Structure formats: C-alpha cells, structure tokens
Amino acid sequence: MMYGYGYWGMIIGAVIMIVVLLGLVLLVVWAVRRTGNASGKPQTAREVLDLRYARGEITREQYEQMKHDLPG
Hints:
By secondary structure, the chain is mostly helical. The protein contains three helices and no strands.
C-alpha cells in the first residue's frame, strides 16, 4: 500500500535505498584500505627482510648486509 504517496514515493524510497547501500559499500572499501595490508603479508623487500630477522632466520650481520644491498 502506498498511503497516498504514489509512484513518487516508491521512486524516492528506491533512491534512498540505493544511496544507503552505496554508502555502506564505500564505507567497507574505505575501511579495508585504511587497514592497509589486510592479508598481513609483507609487501616490500625491506618488510620481508625485517620479518626474517625478527623470526631469527638470519643473523644480525646477514640482516645488515642484506639491508645495505637493498636498493633505495
């Protein structure tokens, strides 16, 4: 039942629903981007190197040498 609003009421309601859903999608996209690397996997060579050193896979000397060898 339209209760006197007619088709304009249905159109306005549909537009409002689309805007709300679009807002929710944009909010989720923003939140995922805000958290950065959501997978937790390192992205750069330096991050991989830092992680290997933190895990104890390489010694401090190896870490320093590899860090020195990295570009940038």
